[in-house]
Write a structure and sequence with these properties.
46% helix, 10-stranded mixed sheet, alpha/beta, Isoleucyl-tRNA Synthetase, domain 2, 15% strand, 960 residues, single chain, 5-stranded parallel sheet, RNA-binding
RNA sequence: GCGAGGGUAGCCAAGCCCGGUCAAAGGCGACAGACUCAAGAUCUGUUCCCGCAGGGGUCCCCCGGUUCAAAUCCGGGCCCUCGCACCA
């Protein structure tokens, strides 16, 4: 069969949206379910991987809709930041990759021309996301509520949120050191290099500047990451070929390199270059080390890079391989020594001083590792690794040794921090930020670290807020389970977070200072709230410019007076009241689903902002995290492309096949590679199911059979299990049952001789709706094909049950299928072609003993009690002989039995009767005569004495 | 640096929290049989090793431990992946 999935999708999509079944309306008194997925940033086309989480959400929402809930499933987009701006810039300068990517996605030239405007970029992609992705996939989202973070009404909401945070005392100001281009302001340093043209992997390093007193009162300033090593100082390094400058800082005169002076100007107030000093002139003189007061000589080193740190370096040859090798080389270089007046004795005096005891290392790790790695020259590239290794092990496992004064005996990790504080407090040191590698702005200019003296932060470290959030998180449904635990730690460790920024960004102006734009995380954490309001703004019933603090306070916090709000905003009182009522109805948010990248950023602040601003009854109730769909070779990247456009994939595989793939290919909580063949497999599966439905609905026979009751019961029990899965949002198990196990049931029914039209139709009427959450288009089509009225999407699913009757029917059929397996196994092993099969059910005493064993079970049944009881009522000597062995066997089986087996064994079924009715089926399966006896029937046919094998649930078999 | 997750049969992937139901679900692939003129589709069966009676052996990255019992718990090791540090 060749099914035109695209046509089916189009048909039902249109039908749903025409009938507006996606529009959310509160029904007071009815249960509600409110779910969102973390809206995507508008930075280009999405790829097939992104649809995983979105589709999962839609499936959950559809399921909820079919189980008695009014649902709200709104969508929006996030355009704050520089994504659209940098996209527009790439288009403007006709960036080849960007243009090609647009064309590959079917974008025409006229549109491309428009996309050099960021606002157009946002408008364009908003439309792409809605139409080409979400509607195309049949989402039952309420489109009337769509919002975007740069809409004016959304901005009003963000302003309100910032005001509330201010009132709560959660907005604080303090200095901050940010990467910035002097021309273009702050830039983001990240591997995708959206703002920059070089240096995406750079890190911001925090150096400590140590001040060394020089004889004339100036201070030589060395930058270091390891202040604790001052105890091992032996000398100072300066580059004789580099120009150094005198800089006036806070009344002191510092000597640093010229680039360092420029950087300092950006990070400290009133920094002034007042003179210059050539490195060579300082050679062989002495300076006084901070902290220890030791006098050390100044030696030349060409390795002092004026662009790194301060351009001056302190030398600790015991723990820094570079310093050690520097000394070794200097010793060999007589010419340099002579030139600068450095004697052998001076170098000799600069021998390494052991300062840190590190397990597994000798007293001088730098010397040791240089020898081990065979490093003898400063040009050896292995120096980097050597330095890292010594630093890492020393920092984590080292202890300051006895020559470290009051710090002796303290772990390096602690000593470092304590010494830093002490030197800063005494004015012997200062802090300096620098980038670990060169970073260039898009404009080509160098990026520096710049002090922002008055940066605003949201105080997520606030202890009360943290505590309340953590407590609330414990009451939430957070999946996967690991994250439920881990979010406690994330919340605990969460620190102040910069919430506004300068520069050219899209977003909302900070209400307390218009120079700032609210940062992209800060404006995307409380927003589920806004979907309640957005619909009214979209329809023009309320106007952005009038949405003031009083308005939001009233509808979201229940504060104030409705008539006053109406008067001041000019909005209709009815509208205001219904927004407020809707908010009270839909909130709190039941589930927020987002990718795993949100675990340490979005989710914690999402939670904390709710806790900070809203009333407790409106705090969120659940978080679901999804892992990624990756490309076979690695992560599918938005910017780097390489993945097929979503509409193309939809056309090629069918939307429902993709939806099925997402839902079933793996648990939500693992990454999984996208493979065309797999998706094709799911498409084939769907086609098969369509065929199955077609065949079953065409059955016209009305004869009843033994298995009619079983099929009905089976679906009851499946239904019951499915709801259990969905309580845990375990869509994968749900799909496995609906799409793979249930068709097996139907096949078994037919194989067993089931052919009753009305039983089959009843089964289809139960089964097809179960597919509606995951493959809704195909489900609607099937539903229609069996003569039902649309929409299957709106059918209420039965709850299912595990009643005694259901258990008994399942146990009966299990008896039959197990017998079938046993016989097949024996046939396989013996390679007999049977002429007759004899089946023997257990003697009654075995049933009795089994019942006793099951009843006794709390832990293990008592073997001897079972034996004693059976012996008393034993009728024959043969029986007495069998009892002990059987009892032992039974106890083992009962302890190991699954709940299902246990229920089956306990079910009161007459095995002899059931099996006698199965004789025709067995005869046709094996093509020979089948006889059924009780093992205690004197007339049984059992020449090889197999009757003893009989157990309840597992009759004995004799073949010949 | 700070933090998280993971290594299961030819492949993908459940199971692990709550030890016995586990030779380990399901899918894919492969093989065999049925149907068919044939192929495809579909259905049935097999797919770690041994076995002419429904059984036995070995197994879930490696090593060790706890236990009557470990894929599952604990300790150590090797390897992989990912998140964060004003991209969102």
């Amino acid at each position: 069969m060749n099914i035109d999935f695209t046509a089916i999708e189009e048909k039902w999509r249109k039908a749903w949206y025409d009938a507006k079944i996606n529009e959310s309306v509160p029904i007071q008194g009815k249960k509600k379910f409110f779910m969102i997925f973390a809206y995507p940033g508008v930075t280009g086309y999405l790829h097939v991987g992104h649809m995983r989480g979105y589709t999962f959400s839609d499936a959950v929402v559809r399921y909820k809709m079919m189980t008695g809930h009014q649902v709200l499933f709104p969508v929006g987009t996030h355009a704050t930041g520089n994504g659209a701006i940098s996209f527009a810039k790439r288009v403007e300068r006709r960036d080849v990759a960007t243009i090609e990517m647009l064309r590959a996605n079917g974008c025409d030239e006229e549109t491309i021309a428009k996309l050099s405007d960021p606002a157009e970029v946002v408008r364009f992609f908003n439309q792409v996301y809605i139409n080409d992705y979400w509607k195309r996939f049949g989402f039952l989202s309420d489109w009337r509520r769509f919002t975007c973070t740069i809409y004016p009404d959304y901005s009003k909401f963000i302003e309100w949120q910032m005001r509330k945070l201010m009132v709560e005392g959660l907005l604080i100001q303090r200095p901050y050191f940010a990467a910035a281009c002097l021309e273009h302001g702050p830039v983001a340093i990240d591997p995708s290099e959206t703002d920059i043209s070089k240096g995406g992997n750079a890190e911001v390093l925090e150096y400590l500047l140590l001040k060394f007193d020089f004889e004339d009162g100036r201070k030589l300033v060395a930058a270091t990451l390891r202040p604790e090593t001052v105890f091992g100082l032996t000398n100072f390094w300066l580059n004789p070929d580099v120009e150094y400058v005198d800089v006036r800082v806070d009344g002191e005169i510092w000597v640093v390199s010229r680039p360092a002076a420029e950087k300092l100007k950006l990070q400290k107030d009133k920094v002034e270059v007042i003179g210059s000093a050539h490195g060579a002139s300082l050679m062989a003189r002495r300076c006084k080390a901070p902290f220890t007061g030791k006098m050390i000589p100044i030696f030349p080193s060409t390795l002092c890079d004026p662009n790194v740190g301060s351009g001056l370096v302190m030398s600790v040859p015991s723990d820094a391989p570079v310093d050690w090798i520097g000394l070794v080389e200097l010793k060999k270089d007589k010419a340099a020594g002579d030139r600068y007046g450095i004697t052998d004795q001076m170098i000799e005096d600069a021998h390494p001083i052991p300062i840190i005891d590190t397990p597994g290392w000798g007293p001088l790790p730098a010397v040791e590792i240089s020898e081990r790695m065979g490093i003898t020259s400063l040009s050896d590239p292995k120096l980097d690794d050597a330095t890292k290794e010594v630093y890492k092990t020393g920092f984590h496992t080292g202890v300051m040794n006895k020559s470290c004064g009051e710090y002796a005996g303290r772990p390096v990790e602690q000593a470092k921090e304590a010494m830093r504080e002490e030197m800063l407090a005494s004015g012997q040191a200062d802090v300096f930020h620098d980038l670990s590698e060169e970073v260039l702005c898009r404009c080509g200019a160098k990026v520096f670290i710049k002090k922002i003296p008055d940066q605003w932060f949201i105080d997520y470290a606030n202890p009360a807020l943290t505590e309340r959030s953590r407590e609330h998180a414990l009451t939430m449904k957070i999946l996967p389970r690991e994250y439920y635990d881990n979010i406690q730690n994330v919340l605990e460790w969460y620190r102040e977070r910069a919430c506004v920024r300068l520069g050219n960004w899209l977003g909302t102006r900070f209400p307390f200072d218009q120079r700032w734009i609210v940062e992209a995380i800060a404006d995307s954490t409380l927003y589920p709230v806004y979907y309640v309001v957005s619909m009214y703004a979209n329809t023009g019933q309320i106007k952005a410019e009038k949405m003031d603090e009083e308005f939001f306070d009233y509808v979201l916090l229940g504060k104030g007076d409705g008539s006053s709000v109406a008067k001041n905003t000019g909005f209709s009182r009815d509208v205001i009241e219904s927004i407020r009522k809707e908010f009270e109805y839909w909130y709190p948010l039941d589930i927020n689903l987002g990718g795993k990248e949100h675990m340490t950023v979005h989710f914690p602040v999402f939670l904390m902002n709710h806790v900070a601003v809203l009333r407790p009854q409106h705090w969120p109730r659940g978080i679901l995290v999804n892992w990624y769909i990756t490309a076979t070779g690695g992560k599918i990247s938005k910017s780097k492309g390489g993945a097929q456009p979503i509409p193309d994939a939809a056309e090629r595989f069918g939307v429902d096949a993709m939806r099925l793939f997402y839902a079933h290919v793996a648990s939500l909580y693992v990454d999984v590679a996208w493979e065309d063949e797999k998706v094709e497999g799911y498409r084939d599966r769907l086609e098969k199911l369509c065929v199955t439905v077609d065949e079953l609905k065409s059955v016209t026979t009305t004869e009843s059979s033994e298995v009619d009751a079983w099929l009905t019961a089976r679906l009851e029990s499946r239904l019951f299990g499915l709801h259990k899965y969905m309580e845990e949002f375990d869509l994968r198990s749900y799909v496995n049952d609906v799409y793979f196990e249930t068709p097996q049931d139907l096949r078994w029914y037919v194989r067993r001789g089931g052919k009753n039209k009305s039983v089959l139709m009843a089964a289809l009427e139960k089964w097809i709706p179960l597919m509606a959450p995951v493959t809704p288009h195909v489900a609607e089509e099937m539903w229609e094909s069996i003569g039902k009225k649309p929409f299957v999407s709106q059918i209420q699913l039965a709850s299912g049950s595990l009643s005694d009757k259901v258990v008994m029917e399942e146990a009966k059929e299990r008896l039959v299928s197990r017998l079938l397996e046993d016989i097949s196994e024996i046939l396989k092993v013996t390679r007999i072609k049977p002429s007759r099969i004899v089946v023997m059910t257990s003697p009654s005493w075995k049933y009795e003993m089994t019942a006793d064993a099951l009843a006794a079970t709390k832990g293990r049944p008592d073997i001897s009690a079972l034996i004693k009881k059976a012996m008393v009522s034993a009728k024959t000597p043969q029986e007495k002989k069998e009892i002990p062995a059987y009892a032992k066997d039974l106890v083992m089986n009962v302890t190991k039995a699954s709940p299902e087996d246990r229920r089956g064994l306990a079910a009161p079924i007459d095995e002899l009767e059931v099996l006698k009715k199965t004789v025709p089926f067995l005869q046709s399966e094996f093509g020979c005569e089948v006889l059924v006896f009780s093992a205690s029937d004197p007339g049984r046919i059992d020449p090889k004495g197999k009757a003893g094998f009989a157990r309840p649930g597992r009759p004995a078999v004799y073949l010949e």
